[in-house]
Write a structure and sequence with these properties.
Two copies of one chain form a homodimer. By secondary structure, chain A is an alpha+beta fold. Chain A is built from 17 helices and 23 strands.
Chain lengths: 585, 585
């Protein structure tokens, strides 16, 4: 037996016990006559002591020989420490070692195995197995483990059935790019890896499995941004015989359960906001509602005063930052620079200070009288001491820019407390969005999303105005999940494919099986999918999903640890009946 | 709201309640003045009644219009039935319908949605979403769901951490054929889908995650046999600081938990048998120990009596079937035909009846005296009334054939009770097996399996005799899982690669990351993987894993429901920088 206890559990109560521990050398202090070794495993650190006079000379000598990250097995007696360490759970005791076995040596690790490491991201990714020994990464994996178990326990308890859907499926050109898998047994043909189990979960509904869930790997061959991974995990769910409210209730329940179990936080209410309101009031379909600072449109009070910038703008809209009138010139310049950054793209920023003593100071004083500014302030419900910030221009771009500014002000003013969690439903998304490049409408969510009945008539006349029975869950400004009530009859589905520019033949080739399934008694159904990596990061208080994935890939889609992807043998290509294309091809 | 109750829960206690149900039409009985509809959902069947005089004429007419598998929503009152059906949980009540909405129509399904269906396997696979409505398939999925939850609950409770390992990994020529995925971002390079997360779980051990598990999809591009799937699910586990006994204890615990929770069966003990004993006593490395009928070798009593077949055979071995001396000539001929089938391959069968009254009758009476037969019978511990069956020939083939005969006799004599479960560990597998085709040794388990220390010296002189620290779990003659204590030091791993015919360069190219990881303090570790599909089938009492997979593929690796694999667009190939090979290439 390699160990009787782990390195995190021994206490004063164990004093006098003979124990065996195994673990890694975190630290060695050699004071000549005394050697202390901190032995580490997943559960904690326990101090070992070897002492001249008490330990045989050979044992003391052996202890001095071990290096960082050596794997040791020791047997000894639990004794009380002279100098206790109240910061360590095992800090009251140490092990007086009687036997020492080096189970494995270690080369000097390429970076410090410590909470604050000297290893850069690239190095840590190459040696991810060493990175995982560090508490921050280990704890992220432990959090993920608990999230996995609690998610399943809750959904199972609610009568959801976990069904594993296939990974080798069929390529569909709609949506993001598929990863494909050549079939050796069917030369010239390919499987695709699922971007989501969407069609399968709908088929399960047709099959009468009225509550389905799965924690499932999904795949998208996209050009990777910093926080995207080619493979990612979804909490994928679907229900039959439900309306939007049933779905919302079910998955508010899930999120509340997770917050309670994982973080001890009670989420009381989950407000519902329309997409239109979210854009109008926050300039974003995923507003952070931990703070107010809602958008105020100023057309009636800011136009017609000779300020051409506002007069000619499609939209004049601002926010009011409470108590920020004291912002210095330098701070205001920095805000202007912020909104003018190319990725935000505003032309400029108008500020109006409502000073504490009641006067106004603005960057547009020459166009606006005190009364004009008073009227604007009234529009904002501003009070003395507040700072109003106004952007103008093309409506969508201006809202988007003001959203960024609002979030920045929220950060600056400490309104985005990472320990506060506000959960929100955003609903009534548009069904379709216009794509300039292809000059046609795309499904905003996916082609199986049902339009609102009352908007169906608009499909022919104003497709962009048709609202969908679609909803997103947003937490602290992060979209953590989304879904919709699906189309469940063949006619509506055909109509949708038509509006998405599918020919009948294309629709049949790609989704014929689903269309056919709908002819055999498909129930009304809907569902949702949560980005599980993102949810873990949110619960862990991190911005990076990569910390919550055991073996992530880099932005080029490479696993630098195993050096993948990689060339394969010519014999493999031959068996698959494919050839690599040369530059000349 | 689509329903207040499901179709399986209403009882006499609900009498008088107004309820809303949704579901599918299982059956309609139209007696003119009265119409009964059996409404079905995942939870059961509830009878609806429409009656002339009590129901409005339009409602009665509408009820008569519905067809099989229509999706209905009904509101009505729970009433006591005149003619109760004690076989149905809801058989005491029916719903007197007041409102009827057809939520969706259905074409006539291509086969009966019933426990015993008229649909052949091909048809049921094409319309798998309809097949899933049938109780046997639905119940198989429900069983699988429970197995999933119980497995995770147990392992979680034991301190195992669920870690998701990547699906897009690296191709390794060792072992079975990989499915590969061309990388668009890295032209000419490929990911591979994992045959198992083997190397990743070992890296997790190096990373200090000392108890890992995952229920994980694995992939093998093999020529499919009836009961193989290109993608399958494993319970994949690994532990650090463990010896074989620790692993056995941990996973006996899992299996006992599953039997207790899922089937209410207590498994008391799990015996351990060596591979050598399993082959010698049962002719199989996965013996069914629900019954004895162990092999008895007869060299000392059956040779030298002038029967050339036995005298010249490498092995003479038999079984004793208790109480089967009454087998008729015809039955014995059938057994002879059985062992002579090409897939079994014996040349013939010798029988010796120990008749109830004490006489012997055998197929070799002219070579053996009564005393000779008595000696043979003594060897078998045979009693009057028993039937001895003896095969001879080349040792391995003869054992394999006798294994088949033993299993058949077990079936014939009712010794393989499907409701009895016997769990067994088979241990001490050979490390290597000789491959005639490539004229070299292959790893019997995989190249990371550790040899037994005491056998290491044989690696150079008699590699085939080296035993591995490997173990299989066998239940009722089915191998449900297997694993090993791994190599955890670089030298032994290098030695192993050498013996498997890897050059240093090959070993480095394929497993360099693992070899490197071993230099940074790899702990002693080992693990196991269970074939989850197989385990579900075993628990469900079925021979076919396909019943326990929601959307299985056929023997050509095709999903006939979605018609996959399929050709992909030329633009996709172009983006991936690959070409299909023509026959001319």
């Amino acid at each position: 037996m390699y160990r009787t206890h782990n390195c995190g559990e021994l206490r004063l109560a164990n004093q006098g016990q003979k124990v065996t521990l195994s673990g890694w050398v975190q630290r060695l202090r050699n004071k000549g006559g005394v050697v202390w070794i901190d032995l580490r495993d997943r559960y904690g650190i326990t101090q070992l002591v070897f002492e001249e006079g008490r330990s045989p000379a050979a044992l003391l000598a052996a202890a001095k020989e071990v290096g960082r990250e050596y794997v040791l097995q020791v047997t000894g007696t639990v004794v009380e420490r002279y100098a206790k360490n109240p910061k360590m759970p095992t800090g009251d005791i140490e092990i007086r070692v009687e036997e020492l076995t080096v189970l494995n040596k270690s080369a000097v690790p390429p970076f410090m195995i410590a909470d604050e490491t000297d290893g850069g991201e690239d190095l840590r990714m190459k040696y991810r197995y060493l990175d995982i020994r560090r508490n921050p990464v280990k704890n992220a994996l432990l959090l993920r483990h608990r999230m996995l178990q609690e998610t399943r326990a809750y959904l199972s308890g609610q009568g959801f059935i976990e069904v594993e859907t296939p990974v080798l499926i069929k390529s569909t050109p709609e949506g993001a790019r598929d990863f494909v898998v050549p079939s050796r047994m069917n030369p010239g043909e390919f499987y695709a890896l699922p971007q989501s189990p969407q069609t399968f979960k709908q088929l399960l509904m047709v099959g009468g499995i009225d509550k389905y869930f799965q924690l499932v790997k999904c795949f998208r061959d996209e050009d990777l941004r910093a926080d995207r991974q080619p493979e990612f995990t979804q909490i994928d769910c679907e229900m039959s015989f439900v309306e939007i409210e049933d779905i919302q209730q079910a998955f508010e329940g899930l999120i509340k359960h997770l917050f309670k179990q994982i973080k001890g936080i009670t989420i009381d209410e989950v407000p519902v906001m329309t997409y239109a309101d979210a854009l109008a009031q926050y300039g974003s379909d995923k507003p952070d509602i931990r703070f107010g600072m809602k958008f105020v449109e100023l057309h009636d009070v800011a136009r017609g005063k000779g300020f051409k910038v506002f007069d000619s703008a499609e939209l004049v809209v601002g926010i009011c930052a409470r108590g920020a009138a004291g912002y210095s010139r330098k701070q205001l310049d920095a805000l202007t620079d912020f909104v003018k950054k190319p990725q935000i793209g505003a032309k400029g920023l108008v500020y109006i200070k409502y000073n504490a003593e009641g006067s106004f100071k603005s960057s547009v004083d020459k166009f606006y009288t005190r009364e004009d500014l008073q009227a604007i302030a009234a529009k904002f419900n501003a009070r003395p001491g507040d700072l109003m910030l106004v952007l103008s221009g093309e409506a969508a771009a201006t809202r988007a820019a003001l959203n960024e500014l609002r979030l920045k002000m929220g950060d600056d003013l400490g309104l985005r407390d990472p320990n506060t969690y506000k959960v929100l439903w955003v609903v009534d998304f548009p069904l379709l969005e216009w794509d300039e490049e292809t000059q046609r409408y795309h499904a905003m969510h996916h082609p199986f999303t049902s339009p609102k009945k009352e908007d169906m008539a608009l499909l022919d006349t104003a497709p962009g105005k048709v609202r969908a029975n679609a909803y997103d869950m947003v937490i602290n400004g992060v979209e953590v999940g989304g879904g919709s009530i699906r189309i469940h009859d063949q006619e509506t589905q055909s109509l949708m494919f038509k509006h998405l520019g599918f020919s009948e033949a294309e629709a049949k080739a790609q989704f014929g099986f689903l269309m056919q399934a709908f002819t055999y008694g498909a129930p009304p159904h809907g569902g949702i999918a949560f980005g599980f990596d993102r949810l873990c990061a949110l619960f862990g208080g991190s911005d990076s999903i990569r910390d919550y994935i055991a073996f992530p890939k880099n932005n080029a889609g490479r696993d630098v640890m195993i050096d993948s992807p990689s060339p394969i043998a010519p014999a493999q290509l031959e068996e698959l009946r494919i050839r690599l294309k040369n530059d000349n091809d």
